[in-house]
Amino acid sequence: MPAVNMEDIIVANHLLKDVIEKTPLQRNKLLSERYGCNVYLKREDLQVVRSFKIRGAYNLIRHLSDEERQRGVVCASAGNHAQGVAYSCRLLQIRGHIFMPATTPRQKVSQVKLFGGEYVDVVLVGDTFDDSFAEAMAYCLEQNMTFVHPFDDPLVIAGQGTVGAEIMNDMAEPIDYLFVSIGGGGLAAGVGTYVKGVSPSTRIIGVEPAGAPSMTEALARGDVVTLEEIDKFVDGAAVKQVGQLTREICKEIVDDIVLVPEGKVCTTILELYNENAIVVEPAGALPIAALDACREQIAGKNVVCVISGGNNDIDRMQEIKERSLLYEGLKHYFIINFPQRAGALREFIDKVLGPHDDIVRFEYTKKNNKDNGPALVGIELKCREDYQPLVDRMNKHGIRYVEVTKDPTLFNLLI
Fold this sequence. Notes:
This protein has helices at residues 6-16, 29-35, 53-62, 66-71, 80-92, 106-116, 129-143, 154-170, 186-198, 214-221, 244-253, 262-276, 282-289, 295-298, 317-327, 344-351, 387-396, 408-414, and strands at residues 25-27, 38-43, 73-76, 96-100, 120-124, 146-147, 177-181, 203-209, 256-260, 302-307, 331-339, 358-364, 372-380, 400-403.
């Protein structure tokens, strides 16, 4: 018998019905027209804690014995699971000790404290989820408390599976493709288990950030692996190691995994906000960001994308815009060696910049007894096609430059 089955998810659905929001499944007109199919969005960004994580957290804590509840619970989280645990602790009046990476967006930390109130203590430690996880486990053993795992627990997976139960109850037409984010794998494992149980022909497509392909590597190698380095930008899905249980389940029910560049995620976040007034966090944008890579397969099909959360810190928007522009080829950084004489910059503007090119960053320090001086120049283009003519004009006029955008070491150092 599998570790998590449809009956477990049905039980969880009953326990959760008076605790969570039954989030809407909405057909999105703009996305449907863009991809020539029917795109439906499961709006977990509208959940009571603005993410699906409340489902698994509450389901596990609700199953604890009275003795276990009295001792309290511990969790580690990049943000959303922490909010789910905090909300559950306050609702059930249980003490909670919550460990979060020091890099967690401030908005998520504030929300955890708001949802948990006097029942939770928040500890910020380490740079990644894995760092805070190690600290949380040590504390849990020391204090003899119950650990509420963010993804690798049957009760947590069953709770997340209720997202799939709601989708299948609300969808009148057969679902051809279901796109779901993968971090640790709990959501994909739970949703996939239920959806495949009702509709075996539905293809479950997991989506991971390209900078943290933990499930992709685990499935390719036949075992859980720990990635040495990850890009932490998609914080809700940036884990170095997926769960052992979630890997086993995903191996059976996930049909394919799409890796999405972080810059593409940023473009998707901005498009969803500007075109649909939907606020999503990076992990929540992953399924929609993956549609481009699957455009041919999904044409004419019924497609469901799970928006897993909407906890996006407004302070991150400038970084999101920057990453999007770089990914779309609309922003480029150069180190340009300017002659140290009057009029050199004016000549560059007149002879090199195109009519729609814009200098958005310029850093230059004049040095004595030097014929030339380097400047860091950021140029924003109106369209991607303007890049090559810009470079051609620099070459034509003998401009000495290094393109920082194409040098990861320089880019990380200067930008």
